[in-house]
Design goal:
single chain, alpha/beta, 2-enoyl-CoA Hydratase, Chain A, domain 1, OB fold (Dihydrolipoamide Acetyltransferase, E2P), 3 domains, 51% helix
Length: 461
């Protein structure tokens, strides 16, 4: 009886051990299965293709790389935008070590078509379109053929790299002489979802990310969706081309107005604040380097020196303007201390043209608004140099001042435009009619505004 009992105990013990091993094995298998789940990273690109869009794509790719994502799926819906930023996004996709798919949710037009073609697989929601990639200007007019040629080459090269028909990609830029059985035969190609499937520009029709994964053969996966932070929203707002241009205009107008009206302080302060808001997002985006910001600061210092310490306008002021324009231009494009490997000549010329054109608008606005401002009560209080030791009393009669119209005198200070002139051996607060007037220049009184004289250079005196 005792021997039989021992055998039963050993048998029971063996059963328990086997059950424990089976439980541990199943738990280990479950953990292994869980650990081998694929990571799918997705984000929405449903905005104009500009600097904020490039920043969004770059940040999302960095986050996907940091979490070792197995796939990136872009949910795209855009009518296009700037070619320079579209090219940056295209290169980011082509060089990605993580497979990149796109789900077109409505429109992949112009720059959006280029971005989509750069992806390994294109999926489209029902009713979506892809194409119409001609290069246009800000008013929507077709640009000259040299721009179209550049875009055609880019589209062909991208399609070839992804084993898609390059002639169809080219036909999205210029008149289609290749596909004769679509509605736009002889015109720029825009493919519907059905047509894109037919010509192998679409790998499948999907309504959401899960359907994309199913069609792509991705199973056992987790989806991570990009979430924008408050800082991202603020930076994107500042990088908006319109906001960015306004900041650029305030910088230039502030510096110019301070140069013309030394001592006000407010225009220069406004320009500095605008410069901080201009450079901060570009710096965080990796476009504006430390040395580019330093060049801007040096330019401002040179202009301040010209305004307050060096009479007239000479080499110092010219260098200041050159430094400022150079800094503002280079901060808009990717470069490594004048190494433009990652930016084309077109990008550099576009950035320079943008800065110069805004500079012209800013200076014109400063001149116009400055004259208006000087006629206001506040402007007169701010600009008039009441600290001049020999200034005439503001109680001088209007009749006495009017008698000076047409008379000539000598500038006792620089007029940029405010200053002091001497007429009939009496010193008066004055303002230039527009031109810069240097000390000791001969002037003529042409108008009376309030209690000061409006003068201009007198070349006949």
């Amino acid at each position: 009886m005792k021997l039989s009992s021992n055998k039963s105990q050993r048998f029971l013990f063996t059963i328990i051990v086997l059950l424990l091993q089976l439980t541990v094995h199943q738990s280990s298998n479950a953990q292994t299965i869980s650990e081998t789940k694929k990571n799918v990273y997705t984000f929405q690109l449903s905005q104009e293709i500009a600097a904020p869009a490039w920043r969004l794509v770059d940040n999302c790719f960095k986050e996907a790389e940091a979490m070792n994502a197995d796939y990136i799926i872009i949910q795209l819906n855009t009518f296009g935008g700037e070619l320079s930023n579209a090219d940056l996004i295209r290169n980011r996709i082509l060089k990605s070590k993580i497979p990149v798919y796109v789900l077109i949710d409505g429109n992949a037009a112009s720059a959006g078509a280029l971005i989509s073609i750069a992806c390994i697989k294109i999926f489209m929601k029902p009713g979506s379109t892809i194409g119409a990639a001609s290069v246009v200007n800000e008013t929507g007019e077709i640009m000259p053929d040299k721009y179209q040629s550049y875009m055609r080459g880019m589209m062909r090269a991208t399609a070839e790299q992804r084993n898609r028909d390059p002639k169809i990609a080219e036909g999205m830029v210029s008149s289609n002489n290749y596909l004769h059985d679509i509605a736009d035969s002889g015109k720029v190609i825009t493919l519907t979802t059905t047509e894109a499937m037919k010509y192998q520009y679409c790998a499948g029709v999907a309504s959401d990310i899960n359907e994309v994964c199913s069609l792509a053969g991705i199973t056992n996966y987790n989806v991570k969706t990009y979430e924008r932070s408050t800082l991202d929203v603020l930076i994107d707002f500042l990088l908006n081309p319109i906001v960015n241009s306004i900041l650029l205009m305030v910088i230039i107008a502030g510096v110019y107005f301070e140069f013309q009206h030394p001592g006000l302080g407010a225009p220069l302060f406004a320009g500095i604040i605008a410069a901080v808001l201009y450079f901060a997002p570009l710096y965080m985006d990796g476009l504006a380097a430390n040395w580019e910001i330093l060049v801007f600061v040096i330019g401002i210092i040179l202009l301040i020196a010209e305004i307050f310490f060096i009479p007239g306008f000479g080499v110092t002021g010219a260098l200041g303007i050159i430094f400022i324009v150079t800094s503002l231009t280079l901060s808009l494009i990717a470069n490594d201390f004048f190494d433009f490997t990652y930016s084309s000549t077109d990008n550099l010329l576009y950035a320079l043209l943008r800065v110069v054109s805004i500079m012209i608008v800013g200076i014109t606005g400063a001149v116009f608004l400055g004259r208006k401002f000087l006629t206001t009560t506040v402007g007169q209080k701010v600009v008039l140099t009441s600290t001049l030791a020999h200034a005439k009393s503001f109680s001088q009669s209007v009749k006495e001042l009017n008698s000076l119209i047409g008379q000539t005198g000598i500038a006792m200070t620089d007029l940029r435009p405010a200053g002091s002139v001497e007429v009939n051996n009496v010193r008066h607060d004055s303002i230039s009619d527009g031109d810069f007037i240097s000390r000791n220049d001969k002037v003529k009184v042409i108008e009376i505004r309030g209690n000061y004289l409006v003068v201009r250079k007198n070349y006949d005196f």
